[in-house]
């Protein structure tokens, strides 16, 4: 009854779900929404499964005036759009062929057969519109026990899709308690070579989610011990990451990645991260900026002028982790002071040089550079008139 009441409250909040159940009365909520309903967590995506083939789903949605997009029709998925909210509706499936990355599927009307192809027992439950829970593999018991385990045999599930090894640890971080499932751990340890076919993008997606999630060290330690972490990317440094976490650094997967792989200069390239993230990692690895807690206001303004605030803050956390490895009020004050400073902007331009009678060409650059060096030496404080006065009194030497 508690489950039914919880479900009814969510139906009241979701006009779209109520409409879809009118169109597809035998459809059920599946996956993460059921799992999170059971453990009282916030529900993000309301995904449904149905025994109706995808073409029939489209017909029914269109007849009801519901916008739909064939986002993954080859795998049986139609996305319905109601009040700008997406709802994925997937036809029940069974795997015909798998190669460790992709699966060839066929439609089925057997709910248990569809549940049997899912990764973990806690993700294999389904819930109908009457609040009846269908749990073929004891997922509710596992959820209550904090036991993340594969549906069927761990080895078979990982062989079907090697990314499930990483997904196992991501779900273990969020829903697990105690040691990782022994069968899953052993299967991952015994078949590390299965990970070699995974794309960098898929590895990055899961690894960054783990780094941004809960129980980071409790999750990475068994990943490291079973060989998965060093197999994917060489030379992880758990001590360095733990020191960063002990500083109460912000939840930031890229910052944590830099701490986890301080000696792997190519980790951003290896994971095929975005250019922005690769640039950020490169800045964190550079010698500059050099940070000291006793910096004067002038030094801090120069720092803000030369480097982006994000780069300085990143470097401050890594420096604090390296030097102290624990919370430090001085570093907090330092970051607060930096963040409170306005970005200094050098007040002169090429037009100012021309107006001052500086000949075109390299002399303009030399004039601006001389002015900027003096402006920076004064703590990036002088205004335009003061810079012009200085340059007038200190002309370029021929």
TrEMBL record:
Which UniProt keywords are listed? Answer: Magnesium, Metal-binding, Nucleotide-binding, Nucleotidyltransferase, RNA-binding, Transferase, tRNA processing
Occurrences of domain Poly A polymerase head (ranges): 27-149
Pfam families the UniProt entry points to: PolyA_pol, PolyA_pol_RNAbd
Cell membrane in keyword set: no
Ranges for the tRNA nucleotidyltransferase/poly(A) polymerase RNA and SrmB- binding domain? 181-236
Q: Which residues form a coiled coil?
A: none
**GO molecular function list:** metal ion binding; nucleotide binding; nucleotidyltransferase activity; tRNA binding
Cofactor(s) listed in the protein's UniProt record: Mg(2+)
* GO biological process per UniProt: tRNA processing
State the family it belongs to.
Answer: Belongs to the tRNA nucleotidyltransferase/poly(A) polymerase family.
Its name, as the record gives it, is CCA tRNA nucleotidyltransferase
Q: What is the lineage of its organism?
A: Bacteria, Pseudomonadati, Pseudomonadota, Alphaproteobacteria, Acetobacterales
């Amino acid at each position: 009854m508690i489950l039914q009441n919880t479900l009814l409250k969510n139906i009241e909040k979701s006009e779209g779900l109520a409409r879809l159940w009118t169109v597809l009365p035998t459809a059920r909520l599946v996956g993460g929404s059921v799992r999170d309903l059971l453990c009282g967590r916030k529900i993000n995506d309301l995904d449904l499964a149905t025994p109706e083939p995808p073409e029939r789903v489209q017909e029914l949605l269109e007849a009801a005036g519901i916008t739909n997009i064939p986002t993954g029709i080859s795998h049986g998925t139609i996305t319905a759009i109601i009040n700008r909210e997406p709802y994925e509706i997937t036809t029940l499936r069974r795997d015909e062929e798998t190669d460790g990355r992709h699966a060839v599927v066929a439609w089925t009307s057997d709910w248990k057969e569809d549940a049997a192809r899912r990764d973990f027992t806690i993700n294999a439950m389904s819930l109908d519109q009457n609040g009846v829970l269908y749990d073929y593999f004891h997922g509710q018991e596992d959820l209550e026990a904090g036991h993340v385990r594969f549906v069927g045999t761990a080895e078979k599930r990982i062989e079907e899709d090697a990314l499930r090894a990483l997904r196992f640890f991501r779900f273990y971080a969020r829903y697990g308690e105690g040691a990782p499932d022994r069968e899953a751990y052993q299967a991952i340890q015994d078949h590390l070579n299965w990970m070699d076919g995974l794309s960098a993008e898929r590895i990055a997606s899961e690894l960054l989610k783990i780094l941004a999630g809960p129980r980071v060290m409790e999750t990475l330690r068994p990943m490291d011990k079973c060989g998965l972490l060093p197999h994917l990317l060489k030379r992880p440094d758990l001590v360095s990451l733990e020191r960063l976490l002990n500083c109460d650094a912000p939840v930031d997967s890229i910052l944590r990645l830099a701490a986890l792989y301080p000696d792997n200069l190519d980790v951003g390239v290896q994971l095929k991260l975005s250019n922005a993230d690769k640039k950020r990692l490169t800045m964190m690895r550079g010698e500059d900026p050099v940070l000291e807690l006793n910096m004067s206001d002038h030094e801090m303004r120069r720092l803000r002028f030369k480097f982006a605030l994000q780069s300085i803050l990143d470097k401050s956390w890594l420096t604090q982790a390296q030097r102290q490895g624990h919370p430090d009020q001085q570093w907090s004050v330092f970051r607060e002071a930096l963040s409170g400073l306005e970005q200094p902007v050098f007040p002169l331009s090429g037009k100012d040089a021309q107006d001052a009678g500086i000949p075109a060409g390299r002399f303009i650059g030399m004039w601006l550079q001389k002015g900027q060096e003096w402006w920076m030496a004064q703590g990036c404080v002088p205004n335009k008139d003061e810079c012009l006065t200085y340059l007038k009194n200190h002309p370029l030497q021929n």
